[in-house]
Amino acid sequence: MPMAKKIVILDSTLRDGSQGEGISYSVQDKIHIVRALDELGVTYIEAGNPGSNPKDMEFFEEAKKLELKHAKIVAFGSTRRKDSSCAEDGNLQSLLAAETDTVVIFGKSWDFQVTDILHATLEENLDMIRDTVAYLNKKGRTVIYDAEHFFSGYQANADYAMKTLRAAVEGGASTLCLCETKGGCMIEDCAKITAAVVAEFGKACSVGIHTHNDSGLAVANSLVAVSAGATHVQGVLLGFGERTGNANLSTIIADLQLKMGYSCIPDENIKQLTPICKQVSEITNIALDAGMPYVGANAFAHKAGMHIDAVIKNPTAYEHITPETVGNERVFLMSEVAGRSLILEKIQKFDPNITKNSPIVAEVVKTVKELEHKGYQFEGADGSFELLVRKAIGKYQPFFKLHYYKTSGEIPLVDKNLYAFAQLKIEVDGHIELAAGEGMGPVNALDRALRTALKSFYPAVESIRLTDYKVRVLDGQSATAARVRVLIESRDGNDAWTTIGVSHDVVEASWMALVDSFEYKLIKDVEKKFQKLL
């Protein structure tokens, strides 16, 4: 069997991705992400511009100590300034000081950008590109040349855009990466322009693609560029970045490797795609988009009863790949449209001897429909649904008993960060514990009080982090007396789960979801310890 054609993957999570709103990495965050991307098996990790800020300079010093299995760290910078030599250019000296074997240099390809933004002549720009690449080449660096605004430049002045690439090749660039910087190029144009570059320069060096998602086509344009001959793809693992984001590498890698016959990462590593995406999202402190292809929580989620029944019989009925291929898992979402097949599949995880006609199945179906009539929605609350099933089949034991809780607020604020207070009394195995908490609202205060009360009995609660909190009014006509639904998403560094509470009192609904969140975590920890003993 012939070997699959290799596609070089350059991940720019730490450079282009860090330009996304609300994203800021510490040096240690960057180290953790480098290790994760190396574990995945990408070829290059573009880690920032060492000349741009002290944090990036510190990172590159720390990066020199890393021993990586698959990836090479690359430094990123621009061509020399128009009024200085390469030897005098501070940015280029910082790139050399980073001591990466490979560097990425970006330069202007669009004549408009050269004259109106850079305020240089077209010939000066060509000299800047050629000189910079040649200088770094002579210093022993492999140079990837990023042709910024290439597609816009080509459409405006194809002859000049190609001259900028020629200058990079003359300087010794090993790769010409065509940057679709504005994100507005249509698929047919991207394919046609990439093919023209491959025909002109494909024998001298490799051709790459770097796309943005402003038109929703970043992944599609990356794939058609590969089909047109590109062998180097740049992007961000989870697709975030400036404006609407970058090409999503988790989708591109899976598409190329599983659907199109290319090799992007070692074959055995593709099953690490979902876990590593989760890890990177945790470090970045963003929620992994549930609807993201391949790696999202809903990528293999089924809700309609007919779909669920078919998938249980044969998953190929509605799944384009098996979720385990990319390290994900199949999910059956609970709702009023789900049938007995789903309920049975869930229950059999805990008791494989229960059959479809068992009274327990009918009981759980009835309970789910009654609760959803009251406003519960279990397709978005996997943790609470699992607890419901455990209670029905007798495999649940509460970890604590609540005697009471009470909350209060204070206006004007006694402290700008604290305006709510909670007190509670719980019982664990006959031991009474009183605790209090302060917070940025009654739910936050209750969360802190419950942690304080439980941590001496169950230290694992300290690792629970509430990552999302949603409140939905279920009956707008009742105004402030309406019933509300609260969803809480929690994580512990490894897993994520969602719990639910419904009440006319938003604090009580929040308390229900909060308790389920803690109990779900604790019961999972007990089971993991039991499994290790077997």
Pick out its properties:
534 residues; alpha/beta; 8-stranded parallel barrel; 3-stranded antiparallel beta sheet; 17 helices; 18 strands
Write the layout of secondary structure elements.
Elements: E1 5-6, E2 8-11, H1 27-40, E3 44-46, H2 54-63, E4 72-78, H3 90-98, E5 102-108, H4 111-117, H5 122-138, E6 142-148, H6 150-156, H7 158-171, E7 175-180, H8 187-201, E8 206-211, H9 218-227, E9 232-235, H10 249-259, E10 262-263, H11 273-284, E11 301-302, H12 305-313, E12 331-332, H13 340-347, H14 359-374, H15 382-393, E13 401-409, E14 420-428, E15 431-439, H16 442-454, E16 465-473, E17 484-491, E18 496-503, H17 506-533
Parallel strand pairs: 1-10, 2-3, 2-9, 3-4, 4-5, 5-6, 6-7, 7-8, 8-9, 11-12
Antiparallel strand pairs: 13-14, 14-15, 16-17, 17-18
Helix pairs in contact: 1-2, 1-11, 5-7, 6-7, 8-9, 12-13, 13-14, 15-17, 16-17
Strand order of the largest sheet: 2-3-4-5-6-7-8-9
Q: How widely separated are the two ends?
A: 42 Å
Strand content: 15-25%
Main β sheet profile = 8 strands, parallel, barrel
Please identify the structural class as seen in this structure.
alpha/beta
Low-confidence stretches: none
Helix-residue proportion: 25-40%
> Radius of gyration from the CA trace?
28 Å
Q: How many beta-strand segments?
A: 18
Mean pLDDT: 89
What's this, in brief?
With 534 residues, this protein is an alpha/beta fold. The protein is 40% helix and 19% strand.
